Amino acid sequence: MNAREKKIYWAKAKVLKALAHPTRLWMAEQLAGGERCVCEFVDAVGVDFSTVSKHLAVLKKAGIVADEKRGKKVFYRLKVPCVLNFMDCIESVIRSESSCECR
Amino acid sequence: MNAREKKIYWAKAKVLKALAHPTRLWMAEQLAGGERCVCEFVDAVGVDFSTVSKHLAVLKKAGIVADEKRGKKVFYRLKVPCVLNFMDCIESVIRSESSCECR
DNA sequence: CCGTTGTTTGGCAAAATAGCCAAACGTCGT
DNA sequence: ACGACGTTTGGCTATTTTGCCAAACAACGG
Questions:
Q1: Geometric angle at alpha carbon A10, from A31 and B74, rounded to 5°
Q2: CA neighbours closer than 13 Å in the CB half-sphere of residue B82
Q3: For residue B54, what is the domain's CATH number?
Q4: pLDDT per residue over A39-56, tens digit each?
């Protein structure tokens, strides 16, 4: 793994890392059903406004979502929907793990 | 997001988190080309034996790879190859980010 | 049985992450 | 201009993650 490769894998890992949090993953999936404002997530997730905002900022910085301000509210939308194609595979990992992992 | 859902998303995030590290992601991709022993990775990645071992343990615990001891060496193989299907999408995120993210 | 090789484990320090609070900011209605 | 609402930012602490070192283990060769 040379320096160039290292850079590439660091970038890829950043995208994965953005999704690798229960709340962020859940929010990303919600956005698949259409845009949502921050306040909607706050109610649904049950954490602080600032926490939701920071999570969304992580997703945005990773290039996964985009935000748009309309009036007082900020709406987030899924910029790259393919990120959710992965979920079937993830679920198969979880299933195979629980069936094969002996203890 | 109720308690049940929270559990599910926590589990999904765990799998993603396992892949969300440059070294682990790189190793997972290497394993797509067939099994490798720990020592091969040590040479290629340039970190400590123990570090490689721990990274592989994370992937194993997540259910992504499996290990098998043969003689002195431990060989790791990709248990769920679909995890790499995601890479095209990740790359498109990176591309769209660099082209659209205005600064 | 001893040394060597390949790997894992425990322990530690440094760095990154998560989530709360308080404060700041932008937009709207009045 | 003022207050209310929706959001972001800064700061703080607690927790997690990373990676090195040293020690422990396991399997083989002589």
A1: 110
A2: 13
A3: 1.10.10.10
A4: 999 989 999 999 999 999
Q: What is the number of structural domains in chain A?
A: 1
For residue B88, which residues of chain A lie inside 8 Å, CB to CB? 82
Catalogue the long-range contacts made by B48-57 (C-beta closer than 8 Å, 24 or more residues apart). B51/B23, B52/B23, B52/B27, B55/B21, B55/B23, B55/B24, B55/B27, B56/B27
Residues B60, B100 contacting (CB under 8 angstroms):
no
Alpha-carbon torsion angle B15, B26, A15, A49, nearest 10: 50
Sort A83 into a burial class: Cβ within 10 Å, 0-12 / 13-18 / 19+: buried
CB contact under 8 A, B94 and A11: yes
Q: How far apart, in whole angstroms, are the C-alpha atoms of residue B5 and residue A46?
A: 13
Which B residues between 66 and 85 have a beta carbon under 7 A from any strand D atom? 69, 71-72
Residue B20 φ then ψ, to 5°: -85, 50
Q: Which domain holds residue A78?
A: 3-100
- A13-26, pLDDT tens digit by residue? 999 999 999 999 99
Using an 8 Å CB-CB cutoff, list residues of chain B that contact chain A. 1, 5-6, 9-13, 15-17, 19-26, 44-46, 62-64, 79-80, 82-83, 85-94, 96-97, 100-101
CA distance A91 to B51: 28
